[in-house]
Structure formats: C-alpha cells, structure tokens
Amino acid sequence: MKVLDKIEEYICAFLLFFMAALAFANVLVRYLTDGSLAFTEELIVNLFVWITVLGGAIAFRKKAHLGVELVVNHLPLRWQKAAVIFGGICSVALFVLLFNQGIGLVVQEYKNKMVTYSMALPMWWFGLAVPFGALIMILRAIQATISDFKLLSNQEQH
Fold it and tell me: Taking a C-beta distance cutoff of 8 angstroms, is the pair 101, 83 a contact?
C-alpha cells in the first residue's frame, strides 16, 4: 500500500506541475504573440479530471473528506462500529456505481471513435479516469473502513 500511496502523490504532483507549466506557456505565447496554444485548455481540463479522482483517493486515505461525526461520536461504541460499516458499504456501493457508469462511458467513447476537439486524441483516454479513480476509491474506502473499525475495536478493549 505504501507504494500505491507514493504513486498517487507523485502522479498528482507531476500532473499539477505539467498543467501549471502548460497554462504558463500559453499565457506567455498569448502575451508575446497574437496566437495561443489552443490545445492547452482542452488538455488542462482533461488532466484536471485525473487529478480530481486521484486527489479523492488520497483524501480518502488521509481521512481528509468532510464528515459529520457529531452524532456518531455520541453513540455507544457498538453503534459507532455499525455506523463505520454502514458508511463503508455506502461508499463502496457509490464507487461501484461510478465504476460501472465510467466503464459505460469509456465503451461508448471507444465504440463511437470520439476524439477531442483540438488535439484529436481518443476521448476514452481521458474517460478512463472515471473507472480508474472509482477502483482506487473502492480500495481506499475499504481501507478506511477497516482502519476505523480497528480503531474503535481498540477503544473497546481499553
């Protein structure tokens, strides 16, 4: 898991740097000439989707997503465990649905031979971010649920 942790973070960092450099280059070209790098906006938007899904997985791992725990924290430990399991099941179910819809999206883009407007790259390359991100988030949701459950079990023993 530690390797996956680093891979997620390095890919996000690289994509963010690349997007910033691309946007900066486009600004320079616009400022210094009458033209622009038309493809940059399209590429940046599509890469932002990849950063979003990878960032969501990182946030799951670091428990950085917003959560309302006020009610759950006042429940007996047994019910807190049930709430953790229920939340984990709901999260996994959501990401399984997202994965299925993402696969449908990618298949549709592939069958229809859809390409990006300015770069003429296959759309499914960018569409893969949805099912790929959903798979990683399923893994991270399960990981977070197990971690939270163990933490509550340790509290019960003390």
Answer: no
Rounded to whole angstroms, how far apart are CA atoms 99 and 55? 17
One DSSP character per residue, 32-86 reads HSS---THHHHHHHHHHHHHHHHHHHHHHHHT-S----HHHHTS-HHHHHHHHHH
* Cα 144 from Cα 91, distance rounded (Å): 10
DSSP category for residue 113: T
Paired tokens of 154: 């340790």
Dist. CA 41–CA 126, nearest whole Å: 14
Please count the other Cβ atoms lying within 10 Å of the Cβ belonging to residue 44: 16
Q: Is the pLDDT of residue 29 over 70?
A: yes
Give the mean model confidence (pLDDT) for residues 82-94. Answer: 95
